[in-house]
Write a structure and sequence with these properties.
Elements lengths: L1 E5 L4 E5 L2 E8 L4 E7 L1 H7 L3 H13 L5 H4 L1
Antiparallel strand pairs: 1-2, 2-3, 3-4
Amino acid sequence: MKKTYQGNGFAIIEKEAQYQITWPQGPYDKPVFYSISKENANKALESPQDAYEVMIYVETGQWPNKDELA
């Protein structure tokens, strides 16, 4: 069974205990999909700031520098 959790500008898709985060990107708002852990799915749903951090992490493989976020 597939579940979708809506966030602010993104969605988390859960299917068979696997999680993906998706959001529109690029000039045509084509959706991008990244596999994430359950922990990161939960983090992304906590706040817009946490969602932004998870999105940066899945794109770059590194967590954003907390000093740069302030």
